[in-house]
């Protein structure tokens, strides 16, 4: 009987060790997730100064911010292309004027 009790105690110890290990890993995972939310929050202007911002607000504002940046990017790409075409037109006109003055 004592041997069976010892085996049961060892099994309980193994289970307790597994549970402790799992709890430690889960605590680390949650902490890393929390730190990631803080890092994301600090990059979003609208919530950067709000230390109490809920996670859902951080995610919504991050989505809005990304969409805003994408919109700005598309606008700037179009503006850059327009300026490039204008520069080509002016270069062509300058070349024509140089040729006329010769």
Automatic annotation (TrEMBL):
Residues 73-100 form a coiled coil. Keywords: Activator, Coiled coil, DNA-binding, Phosphoprotein. SUPFAM superfamilies: HLH, helix-loop-helix DNA-binding domain (SSF47459). The keyword Coiled coil applies. Residues 17-69 form the BHLH domain. It comes from the Eukaryota. Residues 1-20 are annotated as: Disordered. PROSITE patterns: BHLH. InterPro entries: bHLH_dom, HLH_DNA-bd_sf, Myc-LZ, Myc_transcription_factors, Tscrpt_reg_Myc. Residues 1-14 have a biased composition (Acidic residues). One of its GO terms (molecular function) is protein dimerization activity. Pfam families: HLH, Myc-LZ. This is BHLH domain-containing protein.
